[in-house]
Automatic annotation (TrEMBL):
Entry protein name: Secreted protein
Keyword annotations: Signal
Signal sequence, start to end: 1-31
Species per Swiss-Prot/TrEMBL record: Streptomyces scabichelini
């Protein structure tokens, strides 16, 4: 009974903070946060900032893969996310590791891991965390820099585990366009910086949020049509050949 009352109070506090968000908006905090958010250019050009520990192992590469023809890429990125009413800097680095190479002249990729820190949504007790949703393609072409499926976990008082915007089955698919051409930051070890964005993806309603789902959808303005959302990333990538050992 006591636990139920506490849960109800938490839910009411969350609903109140979401209502405040709906009235106040996000523009003021966005401007100040953007001014203080770190950029890729501000970080040191050294592989010490990169974690190769999540690189796919040699045993995870396709059969017949020559270690000398394969490399692991470790990417760190900061940027900005607009999704429905959410308008937040991503000031803590989002990290992605994956392997790429060829087997018998054919290009292959093996995903390693994605990590991201929770970001507090201004004016609420909620946090949002980008999560990998099962698909990536980082082979660039003339139309895009790459593709990445994401879901955005929502956490906060009375928010059930598994509450998210997008799911593995119905993810938010980013088709990333280049905004800044690759620039060699360090030739040895090789570190490259670049910028990407997607301004065209749609934002779905929440999933797995129980009774709070409709409240969250209304407060966060979800669903949000394509063209009303966006993600900008300033990225750095370090490279390590599999011939150098795991």
């Amino acid at each position: 009974m006591l636990r139920h009352a506490r849960t109800a109070r938490s839910a009411r506090r969350l609903a109140l903070s979401l209502a405040t968000l709906a009235v106040v908006g996000t523009s003021t905090a966005t401007a100040s946060a953007e001014a203080s958010a770190p950029t890729a250019e501000a970080r040191p050009a050294t592989t010490r900032e990169f974690d190769f520990g999540a690189c796919p192992s040699l045993s995870e590469l396709p059969a017949g893969a020559d270690p000398g023809a394969w490399r692991c890429e470790a990417m760190n990125a900061v940027g900005h996310l607009t999704l429905g009413r959410i308008d937040q800097p991503l000031g803590k680095a989002l990290t992605i590791t994956f392997a790429e190479g060829t087997v018998n002249g054919e290009f292959h990729q093996v995903f390693g891991e994605m990590r991201a820190a929770p970001v507090r949504i201004r004016g609420t007790a909620l946090t949002i965390t980008p999560r990998y949703a099962g698909h990536s393609d980082f082979q660039s072409n003339d139309e895009r820099r790459g593709e990445l499926d994401l879901k955005f976990r929502l956490s906060g008082p009375a928010v059930p585990p598994g509450c998210s915007i997008g799911t593995d089955a119905a993810p938010v698919r980013l088709v990333l366009k280049e905004t800044e051409a690759p620039t060699v930051v360090s030739p040895d070890p090789l570190v490259v910086s670049f910028g990407v964005e997607d301004k065209r993806f749609a934002g779905p309603t929440t999933s797995g949020c129980g009774r709070l789902g409709p409240v969250l959808d209304a407060a966060l303005r979800l669903p949000s049509p394509g063209g009303a959302n966006g993600i900008d990333l300033d990225a750095r990538v370090a490279f390590r050949s599999y011939s150098e050992g795991e």
